[in-house]
Give the backbone structure.
Amino acid sequence: MQVFTNDDSGTKRDDHLSDLRFSTLSLPDKLLQGIADAGFSKCTPIQEKTLPIALTGGDVAGQAQTGTGKTAAFLVALFNKLAISDPIHSHQPGPRALILAPTRELAIQIHADAVQLGRHLPFKLGLAYGGTDYEKQKQILVQGVDVLIGTPGRLIDYFKNRVFSFRRIQVMILDEADRMFDLGFIKDIRYVLRRLPERDLRLNMLFSATLSHRVLELAYEHMNDPELIRIEPDKMTVDRVQQSIYFPANEEKIPLLITLLRQRNPNRTMIFVNTRREADKLQNYLEHNGIHAQAISGDVPQNKRIRMLKEFLSGDLPVLIGTDVASRGLHIPDVNYVFNYDLPQDAEDYVHRIGRTARAGASGDAISFGCENYAMSLPDIEKYIGRKISVEQIDRDSLLPVKTPPYKPKKMPFKQSRSSSGNSRNKPRPQRARHQKKR
């Protein structure tokens, strides 16, 4: 495994792009047209390092900050491979390229980017993710697709039901590989990889914001001596993110958050918490105090999640509250503020969270609360990012009064509510069967 790093640590570029132009790469004209239509002319650093390798058939394991163009890097390599290669002949129908993503939202976003970049190419795209549209997705896959993008569980479901075969795969992309481990998908990933054609018959690319030992072990096992690309490994956070931290008492967190949101234009603000319960509580408080906000987590129904993201992208929803499920892979441009209402307990999650702002060279702010419950995470975070986070003082006299939302009792399960109605003594006992003898 050959290792490349970005040794540009001593200087700061005027923008986030390299000097390498897409037009200088040996790419099909229709692919170049799609790249131009998307507004891309120069490569980002991760694209500059990975594309020359992948376009000549080499496998890549890439690490870069979130929002630096990883998706476009592997999509360009994928489309180029399909355009210049003859399909693998097989009696069983199936896609030629497979992209595995850890979350439904990331799969949908990759599909949208693929539609944009490949709009002039003849390849059919397919999506497979759980939670909704089982038959609709299935019918599209039965008709045949060239590029299949999806989450592991739904893909394996269709595969086991013989909707498609993996025997024609010529490109395998694994995105957010470390998150696959975090979400417990590693067995599913290995199940899929072991059913693909031999690794020397396909192009393999693995991308992640972090490359841990277990991720590299997976790369060694299922890829062809991949070249490891690290972009700014010693500088894990984006330079353009202005980071600050307050140290409120627990009871000051909501007043402080509402005050800071009121002082700013809260449009395109993401707030991260550590639990779904806290996300729901925060949503109720913000809504009751005149700040439109919605909480997104793994338990929100898929259709509602998609609607939330569309409203957030359009600006109709100014504030999105999320657990770490929402912090990975979502390419949402022009996020102005990221609030760590709860400091994450994993230092890597801090990087993933603040990566929602300052994407693709933009600027942004990341504001954290070091409360009584999670302040102990701060030393590990600062050690991981290699810098101290600027401490801001709380002006307690300026904190706005907060309206407490009305209490909403939890809905009791149907059976439990019936048994707790107080009339159980008056209910007739079940009759004993006639043939049953009395004791």
Notes: Residues 3-230 form a domain with the Rossmann fold fold (CATH 3.40.50.300). The chain has 15 helices and 15 strands.
